[in-house]
Amino acid sequence: MTKLKGKIVLITGASSGIGMASAKAFARKGAFLILAARRLNRLNLLARELKKKYGTQSKIIKLDVRRSSEVKKAISGLPEKWKNIDILLNNAGLSRGLDLLHEGRELDWEEMIDTNIKGLLYVSRNVIPLMVKRNKGHVINIGSIAGHEVYPKGNVYCATKHAVDAITKGMRLDLVDTNIRVTTIDPGLVETEFSIVRFRGNVNKAKAVYTGIRPLTPEDVAGTILFAATTPENVVVAEIILLANKQGSSMVVHRK
Question: Could you say which of 157, 205, 210, 256 is catalytic?
Answer without folding.
Answer: 157
